[in-house]
Each structure stands twice: as C-alpha cells, then as structure tokens.
Design a protein that fits this description.
mainly alpha; 9% strand; 3 strands; 5 helices; 40% helix
C-alpha cells in the first residue's frame, strides 16, 4: 500500500508554494542595531572592541546554523544588512575568530526542518 496522492489542480499556486519553501524571513530589532557596536572599553590594555558581545554571539549563531566558514559568514551578514538597508557592517572574519574564544554562545541546536524565520533582538537570537 503506497502513499495516498492528491491530484494537483492549481499548478500556479502549487508552484508558488514550492518556491516559497526556500525563502527565509530575517528580522533585526532596532535594539539589536543599537547594541551592534561596542560602546564601552574592555578595561584592559590596547584598543577597545569595535563590536559588542551581542554582535559576536549573533554572528557565531549564524555560523553554526548555516554551517558557514568565517569568510562566507562575513559576506552573508553584509548581504543581509544591505538587503534590509540596515546601517551596519559585518564583523571582519578575523575579529569573529579572535572574539569567539571569549564570548559564550547559547542557542538551540538546529531545527529539524527547514529554517523559516530568523530574529535578532538585543540579547536574543531566535530561529524557527
């Protein structure tokens, strides 16, 4: 006994639905934009951080979710900001690499299905 198959009668609607399966919604909260750049000094010798821990954490979560190498991650983040017309720039891949040793990243493991929505708020990164 095989799977029951439903006959497709509206091919245009079915085609659109198949195309939408590959779309990703991406939201960046205004509070996350405000805290993207580091505003305080780390109180150690040397130049202060350019990007906040939230920015590093968000980048590392995207890296883990999409399995991106650091250079591709930099381009991915820049393209998202450009598409969304957000006045931010991505962290340099060397910055992400160095700071990844000091920032604790907490996020749920990959979802079992397709990723449909990504939301970044000032302290929360959500994937659904």
């Amino acid at each position: 006994m095989g799977k029951a198959r439903k006959k497709i009668t509206n091919w245009a609607e079915y085609n659109k639905a198949l195309c939408k399966r590959g779309s990703v919604g991406y939201w960046i909260d205004d509070s996350a934009v405000d805290v993207w750049r580091c505003k305080t000094h780390h109180r150690k010798r040397g130049r202060g951080f350019k990007y906040s821990d939230t920015a590093i954490e968000s980048a590392l979560m995207m890296k883990g979710i999409f399995s991106l190498p650091l250079r591709a991650l930099q381009g991915f983040i820049d393209s998202i900001f450009e598409l969304m017309e957000v006045p931010l720039t991505s962290l340099d891949y060397t910055c992400i690499s160095k700071r990844s040793k000091t920032v604790q990243v907490k996020y749920r493991n990959r979802s079992r299905g397709a990723i449909r929505h990504i939301a970044i708020e000032s302290g929360v990164f959500q994937v659904s």
